[in-house]
Amino acid sequence: MKIISLCIVVNLFFLSTKETKQNYVKVTQETNLQQSINRGKEIYADMCATCHLPNGEGVAKVYPPLAKSDYLMEKREASIRAIKYGLKGKIVVNGVTYKGMMANLGLYEDEVADVMNYITNSWGNKNPKMVTEKEVKKIQKKED
Q: Residue 82: inside a domain, yes or no?
């Protein structure tokens, strides 16, 4: 009886210490970027698509396009500032002058980063450098 009990205890010990295979996800900037893009897509649909349209093409001479936008891709800081604080005045996008106003949408800095990551990686835009909340925090409002 003692031998059987000892065998049971030994088997339980080995079963409980047997290594179990666990699935690990390698966290990389690409993984973080894709998660940010996914969040940004939702925010864009709620806050931006009304004017810039779901396809990012905007409305000719009224709301500038984000799709294949030279302004968006070449003026990173100004684009972040526009999303963070709104925009008033003249800008030139893909050779077309826009003189409208974009209201401050009241987004948090992480939401601004997510939207930027979405729009700079959609509709023909490709931005390998992730916009971070830390980067957004550094950008200050310009005086009028």
A: yes
If one counts the domains in the chain, the total is: 1
Q: What does pTM read for this prediction?
A: 0.78
In a domain, 2, yes or no: no
Using DSSP's 3-state secondary structure scheme, residue 96 falls into: strand
Residue 82 CB coordination number (10 Å)? 19
Residue 102 falls within a domain, yes or no?
yes
What confidence score (pLDDT) does residue 71 get? 97
Q: What is the pLDDT of residues 74-124, one digit of tens each?
A: 999 999 999 999 999 999 999 999 999 999 999 999 999 999 999 999 999
- Residue 99 is encoded by which pair of tokens? 């003189």
Handedness of CA 52, 123, 85, 39 (dihedral sign): positive
For the segment 11-31, the average pLDDT, to the nearest whole number, is 58
Q: How far is CA 96 from CA 9, 49, 100, 117, in A?
A: 79, 20, 12, 24
